[in-house]
Design brief:
The complex is a heterodimer of chains A (about 45) and B (about 200).
Chain A (H helix, E strand, L loop, with lengths): L2 H20 L14 H7 L1
Chain B lengths: L1 H15 L4 H30 L3 H18 L7 H25 L3 H18 L11 H27 L4 H24 L7
Helix pairs in contact in B: 1-2, 2-3, 2-4, 3-6, 3-7, 4-7, 5-6, 5-7, 6-7
The chains are: A mainly alpha (about 45), B mainly alpha (about 200).
Chain lengths: ~45, ~200
């Protein structure tokens, strides 16, 4: 598997997780994440 | 964790020729969330295995994820504090469930605890957070979902306890822990330790 393919897969998962997190009021875990401003604007 | 996320983000950007800073920030956020979720899951698996009850750990995660995603609550500013808080919350929740089981509390007492624990959810959910801006529409939607999830788990808990399935107590104490974490966050914001907006 090429590096490019691995990067593509990680990017896909990361973007999905970021969008999913943006859809809820809070992350269930106890760490204080800082939501990217662009993500907030795009999905709300 | 931040360094690992940044390294993975750099790897993505380098190999996919991404120069957009906003996209890089979204990838980093997604990677951080994924890694943190995996670590939290690992903490609960280890703790529940050590305590000899992995099913209780799974139940805790299920209730915690579904309810806290819509109610919000205490969040630590550092990863190590977050992981310690998460482990301590689980251990206390498990111990409290064992205590209630030992005391064999009645359904009436359970319902009373659920009503009491619902007060912070009703008053503060979703807890405001300066790092996650919510629109009015999102707040209303989250409140509705939080109430529905709360009601479902409460009813399920009372039902399970009534037919002598001890995991009903674990459900009760997990819901209670979410409620306590709401109070902790509201208290910290009130005292100025955390900002609400």
């Amino acid at each position: 598997m090429t590096k490019q393919r691995i990067a593509k897969m990680i990017a896909f998962v990361a973007e999905k997780m970021a969008n999913k997190a943006c859809g809820t009021a809070s992350h269930y875990g106890t760490y204080q994440f800082r939501e990217p401003a662009k993500l907030s604007k795009n999905t709300k | 964790m931040e360094k690992i996320s940044q390294s993975i983000t750099d790897f993505i950007c380098r190999n996919l020729n991404i120069y957009d800073e906003n996209m890089a920030e979204i990838y980093k956020y997604g990677i951080e969330i994924t890694l943190s979720s995996l670590i939290n899951l690992l903490i609960i698996i280890i703790c529940s295995l050590l305590m000899g009850d992995p099913a209780a750990g799974i139940l805790f995660m299920l209730v915690f994820i579904f309810l806290r995603s819509y109610t919000g609550g205490y969040h630590a500013e550092a990863y190590w504090r977050c992981n310690v808080t998460f482990a301590v919350t689980y251990i206390l929740t498990f111990a409290a469930a064992k205590l209630l089981e030992y005391l064999n509390v009645s359904s009436y007492a359970e319902i009373f605890i659920f009503i009491l624990a619902f007060i912070p959810v009703l008053k503060f959910a979703p807890v405001r957070n300066r790092h996650k801006k919510l629109t009015e529409e999102k707040i209303k939607q989250s409140r509705k979902i939080a109430f529905a999830v709360y009601a479902f788990f409460s009813a399920l808990s009372v039902f399970l306890c009534s037919i002598d399935i001890r995991y009903g107590y674990m459900l009760l104490t997990t819901v209670l822990s979410v409620s306590v974490l709401i109070i902790v966050e509201v208290f910290m914001q009130h005292r100025g330790y955390h900002a609400s907006d």
